[in-house]
Design a protein that fits this description.
By secondary structure, the protein is α/β, with parallel strands linked by helices. The chain has a domain of 94 residues: Ribosomal protein L13 (Ribosomal Protein L13p, Chain: A), CATH 3.90.1180.10. The protein is built from 5 helices and 6 strands, in the order βαβαββαααββ. The protein starts with 14 loop residues before the first strand and ends with a strand.
Amino acid sequence: MKTWTAKPGEIDRKWYVVDASGYNLGRLASKIATVIRGKNKPTFTPHVDTGDFVIVINACKVGLTGNKLDQKKYQRYSGFPGGVHTIAARDVRTNDPERMIREAVFGMLPKNKLTRKVIIDKIRVYGGDEHPHKSQNPEPLP
């Protein structure tokens, strides 16, 4: 009996759409990370990119529990001395809601070259309820 592994040409990719308005940030991010990595499929192979594409709409309505809107901070660093910029989660959710979901999913992916740098490009995040991917016929995420 031989073990079957997925080959890059044999992968069947689907498009899923998720409405973030009814989810907490962490629970939504873990579900998305599972799908874009391909772990929800029986054909999952760790060294091959077998994941599906995910479209997230209404990113500005994602929920945070407790006092995280004021206590959670997002940082970016310019590389120069004194170049650390810190923003509260409340401001990120109003100004750049795509960043919240993208960083949460990015943090839940394994820390290797295949998964983080390549697979994070399979997520499309939009702050409103419209997206330009109608031609891919996205299904609701189960």
